[in-house]
Specification:
Number of helices: 9
CATH class: Alpha Beta
Order of helices and strands: HEHEEEHEHHEHEHEEHEHE
Distance between the termini: 28 Å
Strand content: 15-25%
């Protein structure tokens, strides 16, 4: 049944443990552990009707699947550990990148792409979309798209996440009209608050597990805390993965939201 669902939704699903090759070479493309059903390519400024009109905070599925997502807009202190953990575990994820981050860390962007992860747009400067004019929003998304494509060899469409999650219904329409689906989250781990904000590896894991449900979208962050230097999401990730698997959950990406029918 799972394979049939994957064929219909265009899922990217991990169905087995990583190969010895993946464990020995964390920089090698993550192909051995991942089965991919290719999603349809989307023309520029085009978006399927099913992806319009809402900000998705869960993947609609009855399967025991979780989508791990990582925002990258500040530092990159946790990037290496996150990518090594995902590689060793054979898990695909989605990374929402700002253009500024892509320009600052092009080699990391390239590695994220090389490892087979999904790329998303997080604006260029991480400003609130609610305060952006139409012209500025278009420039922010286009600049990010170009920066990511320059570093990774592929772009971010059709995935977008609002900085701070701040948006209005009209902002969703504006982003959709630029060719992007709006992705929120089911659970924010709050690892970005750091140890100085009262968080810990244990609180990160607890948040993920307390919000567990089929189709859960988990929000984590790539960077270190700006003052205490902690990288709680990166540090907690191995335990998060272990705890989810212990509950019988597997992992998918936002490709699960992209239907085979691209008609509008």
């Amino acid at each position: 049944m799972a394979s049939a669902l994957a064929a219909v939704l265009g899922l990217l699903v991990v169905t087995s443990a990583p190969s010895a090759f993946a464990l020995l070479d964390p920089d090698a493309p993550m192909t051995a552990a991942v089965r991919t059903v290719a999603a349809p390519s989307l023309p520029v400024e085009d978006l399927p009707k099913a992806l319009r009109g809402k900000a998705f905070d869960v993947i609609p599925t009855g399967e025991k699947l979780v989508a791990l997502t990582f925002d990258a807009g500040g530092g990159a202190g946790g990037a290496r550990k996150i990518l090594r953990t995902l590689k060793a575990s054979g898990i695909p994820a989605t990374f929402f990148l700002t253009g500024r981050w892509a320009r600052a860390f092009p080699r990391k962007v390239a590695r994220i792409a090389r490892n087979g992860h999904v790329l998303g747009n997080h604006t260029d400067t991480h400003g609130k979309v609610t305060s952006m004019s139409g012209a500025r929003l278009r420039t922010e998304l286009r600049t990010t798209e170009n920066a990511v494509r320059s570093a990774a060899g592929r772009g971010t469409k059709p995935w977008f996440r609002f900085p701070y999650g701040a948006h209005t219904p009209d902002d969703i329409r504006r982003v959709n009209d630029l060719g992007y689906a709006c992705i929120q989250w089911t659970v924010d781990t709050a690892g970005w608050m750091g140890t100085s904000g009262g968080q810990s590896v244990a609180t990160v894991v607890a948040r993920v597990m307390d919000g567990l449900r089929p189709g859960e979208i988990v929000l984590m962050h790539v960077g270190q805390h700006p003052t205490d230097g902690s990288t709680l999401d990166a540090d907690a990730l191995p335990t998060v993965i272990e705890a989810l698997r212990a509950k019988g959950y597997g992992f998918t990406t936002l490709a699960a939201l992209n239907p085979a029918d691209t008609s509008r």
